Amino acid sequence: MDKLRGVLDFSIRHQTVLGYSIVSLMTAASEHIFSSVVFKCPCSSGNMLYGSIFLSVPALILFLLGYMVNARTWRLLTNSCPAEKCCSSSRPWGTCFHYCFVLVPVTARALVAPLTWIAVALLGASFYECAASGNSLIQNYFCKDQGQECRKLMVKIPCNEKLWKNISSEFFSLQAQSQVTLVIVLTPIEKSGFTTFSQENIKAG
Fold it and tell me: Which keywords accompany this UniProt record (predicted)?
């Protein structure tokens, strides 16, 4: 009984972190299923659109769901007053500041799942590799002075990684570019998110 009580106490004290961890694990598992079972890059001129949809649309849906399932969002909407009253001269910025104060932690929580999706997707590189191989800017950069044949090879790289050696041996592969993008994009977001979550835990404590 003492051990069970200890586990319950630990879960209650760290329920926020555990909740984020569960959401992240479920999102990572979903992304793995999508990338390995559902996702099949066409290796054609439609690579850019196909890869971008799988990379961004699920993240957007998860972000909106994060707002919808948060009780604070509905409380804010149902208890909201007209804008002319909220921001009237008698209450200068009071209610507007309160809305922003509530929305910041709500947004931080809603971003957990979509950022996990993007992070896992960039780490696996399947979606990025497909989208980047069909991007005209990337094609122009790597196929400079190499003609149309190089561009035709670029869109087929997701289906045959060995073709990359025929295009460039001096630059990162598309998979490596995806992982570098992950570090560049998510590092500042992770720092700001960690600060927000720490402030929440201090207030909760």
Answer: Ion channel, Ion transport, Membrane, Transmembrane, Transmembrane helix, Transport
The 10 Å Cβ neighbour count of residue 34 is 18
**Predicted TM-score of the model (pTM):** 0.75
Domain ranges (residues) in the chain: 2-194
Mean pLDDT of 150-159: 88
User: Kindly report the CA angle at 118 between 113 and 116, in degrees rounded to 5?
Assistant: 35
- Name the phi and psi angles at 170, rounded to 5: -100, -15
Q: Evaluate whether 31 touches 144 at the Cβ level (below 8 Å).
A: no
pLDDT in tens, 70-117: 877 777 777 654 444 444 444 555 566 667 777 888 888 888 899 999
H-helix or E-strand containing 129?
helix 126-133
Residue 93 CB coordination number (10 Å): 10
**DSSP state for residue 146 in the 8-state scheme:** S
Round to whole Å and give the CA distance between 122 and 190.
15
- Rounded-to-integer distance, Cα 93 and Cα 14, Å: 34
Q: Map 6-73 to HEC letters.
A: HHHHHHHHCHHHHHHHHHHHHHHHHHHHHHHHHCCCCCCCCHHHHHHHHHHHHHHHHHHHHHHCCHHH
